[in-house]
Amino acid sequence: MNADWGLQSPRFPVPHFFGTRTLPPSVQGRFALGHVTEGPGEAPCLATLKQIHSTKSIILKSPVRPGPLPDQEGDALVTNHPGTLVSVRTADCVPVLLVDEQAGVVAAIHAGWRGAVAGIVPETIAICVTQFQSHPASLKAAVGPSIGPCCYEVDAPVIDPLRARYPDWPGVLEQTSVGKGRLDLKRLIRHQLLEAGLAPACIDTVELCTHCRADLFYSYRREGQVIGTMVSGAMLPG
Ligand SMILES: [Zn+2]
Fold first, then answer.
1. In a domain, 209, yes or no
2. pLDDT tens digits for range 15-63
3. Which residues, in sequence order, are bridge partners of residue 78?
4. How many whole angstroms from 56 Cα to the centroid of ligand 1?
5. pTM for this prediction
6. Distance between CA 166 and CA 191 in Å, rounded?
7. Do 84 and 43 form a contact (C-beta atoms < 8 A)?
8. Are the beta carbons of 21 and 219 closer than 8 angstroms?
9. Separation of CA 152 and ligand 1 centre (Å)
10. What's the number of domains the chain is made of?
11. How far is residue 166's CA from residue 188's CA, in Å, rounded to a whole number?
């Protein structure tokens, strides 16, 4: 990936990017929700979902060709096809990229609070393991820019499901007042990655807040509406 596509993790070993507001038009114009399209640059194929804040992963097994996805809705794309760039769009939610070079599988995950609490990250890892013979100790993860705990105060509609489904919730929620707290989504995801068996050294995080950094990112919470999204993606080299 070209450096002008966005931010990159020095520890993520395959082509990837975390887009900013200034994704080049040549790249931006190629995304079609629910489709595989001809990709930009070194990526022959580009896959993009209709995201629904679920825990559903869409699996693209080789061969992959441009056209509508058989199943267009979901929040993670997993492929073993070299040269297919799997992408997700975010504007405060967390983009998570996974790769197992040995097993030959790569994934892009869209994890908002709903998907993260419901477990989209561990469920996508489970797919890498069961469908692609990945071993969690061989997986590497890059966690991209998202809204930080500095700007993400939540209340009962988020806190109640978090407490119900995630026993370690006090480690990711700092209480601010009665019934309110600051949620650290990236830390929640890091906990889940470690729990799934990834080595600490194999998890890299871009510690930037989409809400604080209006110069770099769109933020749903700051803008009060979707005026744009960042695109992030990864692929096995073709
Ligand atoms: Zn912030």
1. yes
2. 999 999 987 777 878 889 999 999 988 899 999 999 999 999 999 999 9
3. 59, 107
4. 28
5. 0.96
6. 11
7. yes
8. no
9. 7
10. 1
11. 9
Q: Tell me, in angstroms, the distance from the centre of ligand 1 to residue 35's CA.
A: 33
60 within some domain:
yes
Q: Is residue 159 part of a domain?
A: no
98 alpha carbon to ligand 1 midpoint, in Å? 25
CATH of the domain at 40: 3.60.140.10
CA of 184 from ligand 1 middle (Å) equals 11
Residue at 155: amino acid letter: D
Pull the structure tokens for residue 42: 């070194």
Cis amide leading into 63 (omega within 30): yes
Q: Which element (helix H / strand E) includes 54?
A: none
Asked if residue 58 lies in contact with residue 50, where contact means CB atoms within 8 angstroms, the answer is no
What amino acid is encoded at 178 in this protein? V
Place of tokens 């590497």: 140
Tokens representing 10 are 């020095």
